[in-house]
Fold:
Amino acid sequence: MVKNFTQTPASADVDASINQRLAKAVTEAFVAAQVSEMINNLAILPSEDAKVVGCLYRLYLLTSAESALVDLVSVGLIRHTGAGDPTQDLHIAIKALCIEMLPNAIGLTDALASRIGP
Structure:
């Protein structure tokens, strides 16, 4: 996306929100790299906590990709092969993580509420 933007002449037709989407993509890439590093450091937590936090981190990454689907398709990172929905695997992975985290929903809600305050 960045490469395409930098190689597009200023006089060319570019969509109106390219600057905002580009800034968001760069920010999301930076945050994703940080989350990846955090996933690698989960070993310091007790195993069940590490599993739940890891699921949360992966869910964040997958939903970030889901929110950027239009751009991911437009730059060719997700390709439609003509057989079904090219985003189906992403949606199935999100659903699987949500189902995996369901038994921990109350604990996560309590933990997040205690961090935010009364």
